[in-house]
Amino acid sequence: MRFLQATSDKLLGAAMLAVAAFVFIYYTTWALLLPFVDEASALQDLFPDRKWATRGPALLLLAGLAGIGAFFAKVSAAEARKKASAGKTA
């Protein structure tokens, strides 16, 4: 049983690493190399408009910060409810 779990963890880790490597290479090509490629090149068709090279990560950062803020608010509210109920019973 443990062997299967270790194997699946390794496969998941390898898949996550492959996705991260692909995203890194794709974004690096898009943001850093593509401006030096001719506009008529077929390579330009594989990437979105250049303005999204900055807007996309900015939107992901905002979404991540909103998720962290929501998580913090949820945990804080749960702790406040727990303290309030403990104060009523005491």
UniProtKB/TrEMBL annotation:
GO terms for cellular component: dolichol-phosphate-mannose synthase complex; endoplasmic reticulum membrane. Pathway: Protein modification; protein glycosylation. InterPro entries: DPM2. The keyword Ligase does not apply. The chain crosses the membrane at residues 12-32, 52-73. It is found in: Endoplasmic reticulum membrane. One of its GO terms (biological process) is GPI anchor biosynthetic process. GO terms for molecular function: enzyme regulator activity. It comes from the Eukaryota. It is a multi-pass membrane protein. Keywords: Endoplasmic reticulum, Membrane, Transmembrane, Transmembrane helix. Component of the dolichol-phosphate mannose (DPM) synthase complex. Belongs to the DPM2 family. Regulatory subunit of the dolichol-phosphate mannose (DPM) synthase complex; essential for the ER localization. This is Dolichol phosphate-mannose biosynthesis regulatory protein. It comes from Apiotrichum porosum. The lineage of its organism: Eukaryota, Fungi, Dikarya, Basidiomycota, Agaricomycotina.
